[in-house]
Amino acid sequence: MSICTDAFVVPAQAMARVHGFPGYEFATVPHPIASLDPDQIRGLATGVVPDVLRILGAES
Amino acid sequence: MDASVTAAAPVTDPAGIRRAMDYYAERGWTDGLPVVPVTESYLAEFLATTDRDPGSVLLAMPHLNRQCTVRLAAINAALAGCRPGYFPVVLAAWDSLAAEGYPGRGIWQSTTGTAPLLIVNGPVRAAIGLNSRGNVFGSGFRANATIGRAIRLGAINAFGLRPHELDQATQGTPAKYTCCIAENEEESPWPPLHADFGLGRAESAVTAMVIRSCVHIEARHTTAAEQLAADIAGTVARTGALIHQTISACIVLSPEHARVLDRAGWGKPDLQRYLYDHATATRDELAAAGKEAISRHTRWRLPSDHPDAIPDDCADAGSPGLIRVLNSPDAILVVVAGASNAGVSAVVETFGPRGGPPPVTRVAAGNQR
């Protein structure tokens, strides 16, 4: 599965359509990430885990 | 344009033309400007200028499962306003872009916001009216304007690279509308670009590059080759262009600047060598911009206290703490273009190969009108 920042949701969805998966679901985190420090990155990663588990069907 | 000119224009239905333009625009088939309506009979005029199969692939983007064929290139050249006789140059441009390599790997979708630069050499320049002199990067010449635009419309229509969708450019560049120049071979003291790489002067060629910025050099004050070269080196070395360890550039010299160098006995290799040696930055200058190290993963520049940071492997430029921003003299290409009227040149910052021959691509003999 894929995780992207919210700034890239539209192009990510466009790529999914190109490859024949128009409903492909992405987990998203707030933009940006390139300029964050390790603690901020850890915070984003922690925050997105529930969404990742839900998309993978591992929540139940 | 005055009334007499308007009255002499071909009689047609203006409302019908507007409806056709709106039709194309509403389908997203334009760059924002109106396009020329294309019919099968008009398309046939473009395809008649080449022996190549309309279905043959010019450039593929495997990650998009999309290709630009000769037929698609012809449609977009016609939409762009090319005359049919320009099409052999458009085909060579696509071939050169494919040989360059970066566009096929997705660089046109990058947030950096690159565009193709096309440099045309040889007799085809005069045959189709390509501008190589004043305002060479500017407007005013149908062949320059529409050949460059043919590539942009191909990117939009063959590959679907529309902004806010598959084209993720943060800002882009004005060159994304069109960027096609001819070398001013007649006023250059040196052999033209295509001759540097094995073609004859009587042949025509297109050399494509991937560019972001076109930065101008104001150096009207000097007749000293080293002063001029130092001014250029200072621009090549600017930290803002350094996303990777090193950069590459095409130096587009005005004829006046080329002659300054030539009178001092410099050829293109001398300028390339000078820039390799003098396009440098100190570690402190890089550190001030937070770019003194590179990422172990992406190899993009970042500060040395970043968790992913490793030292770069840029060559030392003769004294400790002074590093080269070019990895070889071949990371610089030199062409001559523009008017012979001022000491003004340009550093075109390129993406892609840093060294090795550029994709100089022969223009097939065609029916150039």
Describe the structure.
Chain A has 60 residues and is mostly helical. In chain A, 48% of the residues lie in helices and 10% in strands. Chain A has one domain. Chain A has two helices and two strands. Chain A is flat, with a radius of gyration of 13 Å. By secondary structure, chain B is an alpha+beta fold. Chain B has one domain. In chain B, 31% of the residues lie in helices and 19% in strands. Chain B contains twelve helices and 14 strands. In chain B, the strands form four sheets. In chain B, strands 3, 4, 5, 6, 12, 13 and 14 form a seven-stranded mixed β-sheet that branches. In chain B, helix 4 crosses helix 5, helix 5 packs across helix 7 and helix 9 crosses helix 10. The chains are: A mainly alpha (60), B alpha+beta (369). The interface between A and B is small, with 8 and 10 residues.
Brief description of this entry?
Chain A contains two helices and two strands. Chain A is mainly alpha-helical. The mean pLDDT of chain A is 92.
Task: Write the SSE topology.
The complex is a heterodimer of chains A (60) and B (369).
Chain A: E1 3-5, H1 9-18, E2 27-29, H2 38-56
Chain B: H1 3-7, H2 14-26, H3 40-47, E1 57-61, E2 66-69, H4 70-80, H5 87-100, E3 115-121, H6 124-128, H7 142-157, E4 180-182, H8 193-196, E5 205-218, H9 225-236, E6 248-253, H10 255-263, H11 268-278, E7 280-282, H12 283-288, E8 293-295, E9 301-302, E10 309-311, E11 322-324, E12 332-336, E13 344-351, E14 360-362
Parallel strand pairs in B: 3-4, 6-12
Antiparallel strand pairs in B: 1-2, 3-5, 5-13, 5-14, 6-13, 7-11, 8-9, 8-10
Helix pairs in contact in B: 3-4, 4-5, 4-7, 5-7, 9-10, 9-11
